[in-house]
What does this fold into?
Amino acid sequence: MITKSSEFLMGAKDIMPHHLGVFPFGLVFGVIAMTSGLSILEAILMSSIIFGGASQIVFVQLWSVGVPSFIVGSSVAIVNLRHLLYSASLAKYVESLPLRWRMLLAYLLTDQSYAVMVQKYRTEEFSKYNHYYFLGSGLTLWAGWQIATIFGVLGASFISEEWSLTFAVSLTFIAIVVPLLKTRADLVACLTAGILSIVLQPLPWKLWLIFAGLGGITAGWIATTIIHRNKEL
Amino acid sequence: MIWVVMIIAGIITYSTRFSMFNKTIAKKMPAWVETPLHYVPIALLTAIIVPEVLISNDTLNLSIFENLRIIAACVAVFIALISRNVIATIASGLICLWLLQWLI
It folds into this structure.
């Protein structure tokens, strides 16, 4: 029998594998925030205010080298732009929910919760308590992220660089990106962004991130257009 | 000052998340934006991954013997391709990197 609590627990369970990547990621954020000169309170609260790992790391790295606030804000915005897509993709499943539910679930929308939500909606039957599944997965991931941040912040001086925890960040994203690569255009977007992210390194203020991202998006977009045109001819 | 920037960044981030959960905004979005948006996660996440793997201490290191993350990342990509499993991907990459660091 599907109940509110069974859906909540199922969501919490399905997102568990992602904690393996998110926990070291949170530790890394905590450590970087401390070495970048943030206060304990600033570092810990940033994980609730922004709640987006990659963008938080970008934020503190840019902030610590004195990049103008406008660029820091734009970089965070660009890194987090992908949530717009997640939001669009899940919109049809939440549209019948009351506003307070949609506001809460939006806050909990991350790469990881999106990944499990999509899986759930595509493979399982629609239940009227699906939003509890979303809540269960989102909330446990949120809690894991907060706990990892606190551990990272408080344990910054004990966490050794030799553990290569920053690599866990890349691995978390590899686990999310690889299954997304389905068409040739996807591959074009991926390769273009990857190459640009290296070639554009000399740009000031870490602008390479924005331009590599935009470059990859444009390349994928152009590739789709070309592929479609060829099909029509 | 950092609080102001942090809160603005938080509001921007929340807006991207809530955007399409808002019925009015969702209806106003032109259909053509769907194509470029499809590539947003792929492009941004790749742009974060690649420099993390290839650059250490501000220098590009493409030697697979010195920069052990290259092999570990390739192993993780391969495991992700065949297993599509999050735990297997992350664990294989980390274990591979630790093993190589211990061996070399």
